[in-house]
């Protein structure tokens, strides 16, 4: 890749696909997250570095456009790079290509650099800005990471559960991939099995940890020849901790 970034190839494993033989949306998000971590590792900003400096990159938004989901056994190439990094935040882009070189995913994400102990934003050092790179092209130009302001459509499901050990990461908080996994569980079978996912948006509002009670509310509506599924993930105080919007073709 010509830009400053990271590239790796991989084979889609059995555990990454769903009952339709396609890569599950949460597995796709996990691949993108891991590519971001690998890029940071290659630049010297490893998990150990973050622990020692009491800092952390916290994900705020995802927007992923999927032109098709890869199948089990396929080999894909993942590219990621930082297209903007300044002050307290950065945006990171992603491309996914199949074996024939066809682009099958565009991805954009927004991250906040935080002090781990205070959980408040802190400035990114000039050294880190130069290492990651800034003012590069974005995978999704003019991305605003917009989300619906309120519930819309037919309520199709609610679930109440407790965050478990398996949901948490090294920070002790629910991993960002889990929110999408929870939302996918509420997509009606007739949509998940008979349609192809074409767009994924996630916004993270608050953190949750092991033992927290979580409630999901999922709404569906037909829009411009597609089906929009909107899931609000709330805590016990009815405050929204994350929103997930998917479009199905």
Q: Any overview of this molecule?
A:
It is a single chain. With 249 residues, the protein is of the alpha+beta class. It has two domains: 6-132, Hotdog Thioesterase (Thiol Ester Dehydrase, Chain A); 154-248, Roll (Thiol Ester Dehydrase, Chain A), CATH 3.10.129.10. Helix content is 18%, strand content 41%. It contains five helices and eleven strands, in the order βααβββββαβααββββ. It has helices spanning 25-42, 47-52, 126-132, 176-185, 189-192, and strands at 6-11, 55-66, 75-86, 89-97, 103-115, 120-121, 154-162, 197-204, 213-223, 226-235, 240-248. Strand 9 (213-223) and strand 10 (226-235) form a beta hairpin. The model has no long low-confidence stretch (mean pLDDT 95).
Q: Briefly note the structural class of the backbone.
A: alpha+beta
Number of strands: 11
Determine and state the CATH class of the largest domain. Answer: Alpha Beta
Radius of gyration (CA) equals 18 Å
In oligomeric terms, what are we looking at?
single chain
CATH fold title of the largest domain: Thiol Ester Dehydrase, Chain A
Low-confidence region ranges: none
How would you name the CATH homologous superfamily of the largest domain?
A: Hotdog Thioesterase
Mean pLDDT rating:
95
The major pleated sheet works out as: 11 strands, antiparallel
Measured distance between first and last alpha carbons: 31 Å
